[in-house]
Amino acid sequence: MLGENPLPWVQGRGLGGWGEGTNASICENAPYRGTPSPHPALSPEYRGEGSARLCAAEQRAIALKRLCADGRRATECPSSVGCALAHVEFFGSDDASAFAKAPPYESTLAVYPNALVSFRVMIHRLYFPLPVLLLLTATFASPPSIDHIDRSLVASGQGYFPVALRLKNGRIAVIMRGGGPHLSINGRLDIVFSDDDGKTWSKPTVVVDSPLDDRNPALGQAVDGTIVVGFWRTARYDDQGRYNPSLDKPVSTWTTRSADGGKTWSNPAPLDVADISWASPYGRMLALPDGAMLMSVYGGNPGASAKDKGAAAYVYRSTDNGKTWKRFSQIAAGYNETALLRLESGDLLAALRSDTPQNLWLARSTDGGQTWSKPTPLTPANVHPADMILLADHRVLLTCGDRIGPTYGVRALVGSKDGTFDWNDNAVLTADATSRDCGYPSSILLRDGRVLTVYYKVGSKDKPQWGTHCGAMVYTLPPQR
Q1: I need a surface site. Which of 217, 233, 239, 283 has the fewest CB within 10 A?
Q2: pLDDT at residue 304, as a whole number
Q3: CA distance 161 to 182
């Protein structure tokens, strides 16, 4: 392997350090080809730039979870076949422990937060004999499949950002965006119901519709039966109706409540989020055994430096059945849309969408949401956002949008009772969306043990007549292995 780099289809800033034999590595900024270069995890000259690594397929599960003993970011790959095809990872984190804990990914490219360098991967030449290629094919085999999925239409001509909830009376409620496309000053929030576990759905009725863009709903039910909706309102559209977040126009956060099962709704009440400047609700609210409600909110991060300015994920808490809310905790900075789940143990699990590279990370709270562990990565880039529910056996089902390409849709992943996952076990639920503008799944456990997952798409290759829609999938998960 000395001489010409046999992997010319890997291109990146300062790429070098091609090794040979067993311990082949590719390290960023290597001084010359043939010798892997030391890459201190916290060295200032490399901070935030990361390294690429190509690992032999048969060592993939091991190599992608280790950190080089000498502290280099490039992971050594103990393999007699050198470096394997079709797996490049780029890391831009300054936290060395993140590399040691990084899970194996099936995707070609995964970019971590704060990345300043990206790698373009092109299959240009193949240098492996047939037995090696067969080994790679077997190792990178397709994830578990879900054999039979029943798809149905929930609402057409709308349906963005759906959130599903099983109500105390047994009905299923789904809040969704209507009135306009993904970005529109005409946006409103509608709700639909099913009385037969998702076989049929009511026509959408309006929850809130102001002259501004009402969007980004969260949905929950208090212990007294009150249905609670949180949402974000923005006026940041120009005179031509184009969204422009830099405009100096108001944004605000609101809740509205229904005491009659969603027939009528209270006048929206504002949330005081002045301390974080802005806040957008997300997903399904939690109703805790003590009667408190928790709502996931992402918003401004006043403590961040100008360079790192971005969103942060928070938990807001209500102790009066959703009438008033106060900021309870910050989960982490650098994240936005976050799903919350209470595990069988009583711990809380959060699945956070990162600001960049827009992948999913997990954090945990053992004190009811007051404090949170440092997030750890779960998925490749462009897999987001998430929803989580408990199955009948208390394992965790995580569903998420798949925007990696070339296909787009929704994936599912079942984790253990304590909320640990292996991304290699993910399964495709749907992959026929016509664009990346899709996903936002939200799931419900049905009475017969199957799962219902709602989602949105602006177009479907299999169901083009549905147009922009909220759809539902009903399926049986594979048995526990």
Answers
A1: 239
A2: 74
A3: 9
Mean model confidence pLDDT for the chain: 77
What residues have CB less than 8 Å from 189, skipping those under 6 apart? 175, 176, 177, 178, 206, 207, 208, 209, 214, 215, 217, 229, 231
Question: How far, CA to CA in Å, does 176 sit from each of 84, 295, 344?
Answer: 44, 17, 29
In the prediction, which pLDDT does 144 show? 63
Classify strands 279-287 and 172-178 as parallel, antiparallel or unpaired.
Answer: unpaired
Q: What is the mean pLDDT of residues 159-173?
A: 98
Dist CA 381 CA 353 (whole Å): 10
Residue found by looking up tokens 């001489």 in the block: 3
Distance CA 47, CA 40 (A): 9
Residue type, 392: A
Q: How far apart are the first and last CA of the chain?
A: 41
pLDDT per position as a tens digit, 264-316: 999 999 999 999 999 999 999 999 999 999 999 999 998 776 556 689 999 99
Contact assessment for residue 436 and residue 458, using Cβ atoms and an 8 Å cutoff: no
Inter-CA distances, 138 with 24, 64, 95, 141, 419, Å: 22, 18, 32, 5, 28
pLDDT value at 132 more than 70 = no
d(CA 25, CA 466): 49
Rg (CA), the chain: 23
Q: How far is CA 66 from CA 71, 81, 125, 262, in A?
A: 10, 19, 28, 51
User: Would you say 356 and 317 are in contact if contact means Cβ atoms under 8 Å apart?
Assistant: no
- What are the Cα distances from residue 194, in Å, to 6, 202, 204? 58, 6, 11
For the CA atoms of 14, 333, 371, 349, the dihedral, rounded to the nearest 10 degrees, stands at: -80
The whole-model pTM stands at 0.73
